[in-house]
Amino acid sequence: MGIDRDDTNQPSLKPGDEAAPGTPGSGEDVCPDCAGTGTLQGESCARCGGTGIVQEGIGGG
Length: 61
Ligand SMILES: [Zn+2]
Description:
The protein is mainly β. It is 0% helix and 23% strand. It is built from no helices and four strands.
Protein backbone atom coordinates (compact mmCIF):
# COMPACT_ATOMS: atom_id res chain seq x y z
CA MET A 1 0.00 0.00 0.00
CA GLY A 2 1.56 3.25 -1.08
CA ILE A 3 0.61 6.79 -0.51
CA ASP A 4 -2.54 7.65 -2.40
CA ARG A 5 -1.49 10.76 -4.25
CA ASP A 6 -3.40 12.47 -6.95
CA ASP A 7 -0.67 13.55 -9.30
CA THR A 8 -3.13 15.28 -11.55
CA ASN A 9 -3.92 17.74 -8.80
CA GLN A 10 -1.04 20.10 -9.38
CA PRO A 11 -0.78 23.23 -7.28
CA SER A 12 -1.91 26.21 -9.23
CA LEU A 13 0.90 28.66 -9.61
CA LYS A 14 0.17 32.29 -10.05
CA PRO A 15 2.09 34.26 -12.69
CA GLY A 16 4.22 35.87 -10.00
CA ASP A 17 5.08 32.65 -8.29
CA GLU A 18 8.61 31.40 -8.65
CA ALA A 19 7.98 28.19 -6.75
CA ALA A 20 5.10 26.07 -5.63
CA PRO A 21 3.85 26.66 -2.10
CA GLY A 22 5.78 24.49 0.31
CA THR A 23 8.76 24.13 -1.98
CA PRO A 24 11.97 23.96 0.05
CA GLY A 25 14.04 27.05 -0.50
CA SER A 26 11.07 29.19 -1.33
CA GLY A 27 8.95 31.49 0.71
CA GLU A 28 6.17 33.97 0.60
CA ASP A 29 6.94 37.54 -0.24
CA VAL A 30 4.95 40.66 -0.82
CA CYS A 31 3.93 41.01 -4.42
CA PRO A 32 6.14 43.68 -6.01
CA ASP A 33 3.45 44.67 -8.46
CA CYS A 34 0.66 45.56 -6.07
CA ALA A 35 2.78 45.97 -2.93
CA GLY A 36 0.74 43.38 -1.12
CA THR A 37 -2.62 45.00 -1.68
CA GLY A 38 -3.78 42.36 -4.13
CA THR A 39 -5.26 45.08 -6.24
CA LEU A 40 -3.69 46.90 -9.12
CA GLN A 41 -5.37 49.86 -10.76
CA GLY A 42 -8.72 48.85 -9.36
CA GLU A 43 -8.47 45.29 -10.58
CA SER A 44 -7.28 42.05 -9.07
CA CYS A 45 -3.53 41.86 -9.44
CA ALA A 46 -2.67 39.25 -12.06
CA ARG A 47 0.80 38.60 -10.75
CA CYS A 48 -0.28 37.40 -7.33
CA GLY A 49 -3.85 36.47 -8.19
CA GLY A 50 -5.22 39.08 -5.85
CA THR A 51 -3.57 37.62 -2.78
CA GLY A 52 -0.86 40.22 -2.45
CA ILE A 53 1.59 37.41 -1.85
CA VAL A 54 3.87 35.63 -4.28
CA GLN A 55 6.08 32.62 -3.77
CA GLU A 56 9.68 33.64 -4.23
CA GLY A 57 12.63 31.35 -4.62
CA ILE A 58 15.26 31.97 -1.97
CA GLY A 59 18.95 31.56 -2.60
CA GLY A 60 18.39 30.08 -6.01
CA GLY A 61 20.77 30.67 -8.89
ZN1 LIG B 1 0.03 41.48 -6.74
